[in-house]
Amino acid sequence: MHLALSVARGPVRPRAKSVTASAGQSATERSPPLREGATVRVTSPITVWHVPKFRKGMNVQGLQGKIMQNVSVFRGVPLSPSKPWKVAIDAKDPAGQAFKFVMHLGDEEMEVLN
């Protein structure tokens, strides 16, 4: 009896969902493609911990920002990041002062506004 063994190198992650519209959606319901410079809104309930003014974490769902970069290619070498879009998010601190911070998002975690 021959058994095939495989070695797993860490958890297997599901492939990212495509942001293309299904066949049942009309052209007006489809969101524009993700691209650098596009304005986006965070649609997933994500808590970030790297914002200094929010030591207990900050929920970014509903905040808007601009896509700065797609990090899927680095110096001509294709990469496979789980969150390929580098986004500058506009937010307000508890005192009401506007500030920006950068985070990485996946295709399914945001929607294009323009």
Automatic annotation (TrEMBL):
Start and end residues of each Ferredoxin thioredoxin reductase alpha chain domain: 37-109
The keyword Oxidoreductase is assigned to this record: yes
SUPFAM superfamilies (alphabetical): Electron transport accessory proteins
Pfam families in the cross-refs: FeThRed_A
Ranges of Polar residues composition bias in the record: 19-29
Alphabetical UniProt keywords: Oxidoreductase
InterPro entries the record matches: Elect_transpt_acc-like_dom_sf, Fd_thioredoxin_Rdtase_alpha, FTRV
GO MF terms, alphabetically ordered: oxidoreductase activity
Region entry Disordered, spans: 1-36
Gene3D superfamilies the UniProt entry points to: 2.30.30.50
Any GO BP: photosynthesis
Subunit structure and binding partners: Heterodimer of subunit A (variable subunit) and subunit B (catalytic subunit). Heterodimeric FTR forms a complex with ferredoxin and thioredoxin.
Similarity section: Belongs to the ferredoxin thioredoxin reductase alpha subunit family.
Cited function: Variable subunit of the ferredoxin-thioredoxin reductase (FTR), which catalyzes the two-electron reduction of thioredoxins by the electrons provided by reduced ferredoxin.
PANTHER family named among the record's database cross-references: FERREDOXIN-THIOREDOXIN REDUCTASE SUBUNIT A1, CHLOROPLASTIC, FERREDOXIN-THIOREDOXIN REDUCTASE, VARIABLE CHAIN
Protein name per Swiss-Prot or TrEMBL: Plastid ferredoxin-thioredoxin reductase variable chain subunit A
Lineage: Eukaryota, Viridiplantae, Chlorophyta, core chlorophytes, Trebouxiophyceae
